[in-house]
Design brief:
Chain lengths: ~140, ~160
Amino acid sequence: MNTADQYLKAIYLAQRIEEGPASTGTLADLLEVSPASVNEMIGKLEDRDLVEHEKYKGASLTDEGLERAHNALQTYCIIERFLANVLEVEEFRDEARALESVIDDTVAERLDTIIDRPSECPDCFDPERDYCERLEAGADGCVK
Amino acid sequence: MSLGQRVSNDHQLARLLQIGVVLEEVVESRAAHHLDSLPPSEQAALDEEVRELLEEAAAESADHRERLEALIDDLDAETVPYEEINALVDARYGPPEDTDGVLYDQLANEETAYKFYDDLIDAIEASEGEFAVDRDRLLETLYEIRAEEREGAEEVTELMEHST
């Protein structure tokens, strides 16, 4: 997943957490980068019509940005689910975060052929807990 | 979240190589499933070529898997047995409608594997970290596998052009 898609996914999740535009601070926390880096990237995404930014309020996804963010989150869900259910990784959330930049969506699609994913994916992703609420493995990696 | 493609430690490298093994297992298993699913009505000369291609693809994936497993051994990690992945493929496998469908799926297999190794190589090259496995040996193995995946994709494409 490339950096732009990681940002779009973070904006989507931040918008869900904040129930409104995503603030720079929340995005910086989610992405573990500086607020200055967030602002720079938001500007680039705005130039590409993927994001709208309102001063003092934050960033919101355009329709096109929302579609890409949805796909990016779906890819992320596949990685988490694959790590938890196939490789049985306990720390699947931390590892998914570490690996997402190296796993392309085409690769995730292939991995998707061996995992069971709810049809409503990625709407069942819980942004607060950072994993799918329908994932059989809980936050500690244990099967519920 | 980790921005930018980089492999920073042995654990992460082992995990990515494990994913590579699973991808190879998926390719091997799907190729075997496709072989069984080729429709009897299309047992023409072309099918013989497709059959050969799938057999070669399965054998090549098994070889790639062994080479990756040797690297993973040096990192003190384990891999998911083929039988487990084969069972997962089996559970969700739907045979393509015809021989063209089989070839499209095989092309997706080869292209996906190529993309995976390409990204992995980039991420390793972007990292200055030391690994428990010799860096030159690691990259050499991945370069070779990537080249074979590219050849594999070319072979499928040629066969697809043949069949149209």
